[in-house]
Specification:
36% helix, three-stranded antiparallel β-sheet, single chain, alpha+beta
Length: 97
């Protein structure tokens, strides 16, 4: 995920949001229309273990993205699935929450 995110930042063509804490982009092979990936820049296996500053940045990015979708797509219904690590003991060092 780090390599994909960095490649998206370098390319810049599908970026929706970039800051010191997270990156949001449209994946090149979306599984559904208007899919957006919001990826934290820090490795963390669980949201409860995240630094408050990182959580504020993610919340701000979500707010920005929701506003963008609301304005551009005339207030559509949407879902925000969150993917914390399924087995934190095995992948604490590599998983992004």
């Amino acid at each position: 995920l780090c390599d994909i995110t960095e490649a998206e930042v370098q390319a810049g063509s599908r970026l929706l949001h970039v800051d010191d804490h997270c990156v949001a982009f449209c994946p090149p092979a979306s599984r559904f229309p208007y899919q957006i990936l919001l990826v934290a820049r820090t490795h963390n296996h669980d949201f409860s273990a995240s630094h408050p500053e990182d959580l504020r940045a993610l919340a701000s990015a979500l707010r920005t993205l929701a506003g963008y979708l609301h304005r551009r797509l005339d207030a559509p219904a949407y879902n925000w699935p969150l993917h914390p690590a399924p087995n934190a003991q095995l992948i604490q060092q590599v998983f992004h929450s």
